[in-house]
Amino acid sequence: MSSTDIRLVVLDMAGTTVADDGLVEQAFQAAAGELGVEAGSPEHRTMLEHVRLTMGESKISVFRHLFGAEEKAQRANSAFERAYHDLVDAGHCAALPGAAEAIAELRGQGRKVVLTTGFSRATQDRILGALGWEEIADLTLCPAEAGRGRPFPDLALTALLRTATDSVHQLAVVGDTGYDMLTGTRAGAAVVAGVLTGAHGAERLTADGATHVLGSVAELPGLLAAR
């Protein structure tokens, strides 16, 4: 590989490599209910719209915005995690078609792969365990291990540092949300690829800096090989 080849691929999980199927919204509804927000109320609808707009962001940051006081935000986050874990444990967690194969192919091409998330480490590990993905990537990272979550560049840059990648010009960031795209552009990634299997459409992904928009992560190995 030359000094400008992509040597590190930072991949989002839910919506990019892992099917979401509304799990985030279901877990949010449980969290909001615990804080006394009635499902279907104007307040609930406003909060849910914010959750949708900020998909990809660190979940505790979302709850701090929605509930203000740290104690309430922590209660909501704990309720969210319990609800999400229950959904995962009940079998509502699956890899997106072609995701595991794409990760294997990327690593087979000699690239390092790091899986990142807006969830906590406990939730990330729950998902990895449910899928049998504990060893699928070179590294996994959550916001608490990087400093700040998306849309800041911390996750991507921490991945670069932890894998001893030489330059941001060798970095690709891939995700399904506008916040993933902002993370990639703010980190200076050479490739910032949006996928259409998750929260946001092509218009939002492009507006937030996508250099490429793909149908799914399954197309990524071919894209990078063609470069």
UniProtKB/TrEMBL annotation:
Coiled coil: none annotated. Gene3D superfamilies: HAD superfamily/HAD-like. Pfam families: Hydrolase. InterPro entries: HAD-like_hydrolase_sf (IPR050155), HAD-like_sf (IPR036412), HAD_sf (IPR023214), PhnX-like (IPR022468). This is Phosphonatase-like hydrolase. It comes from Kitasatospora nipponensis.
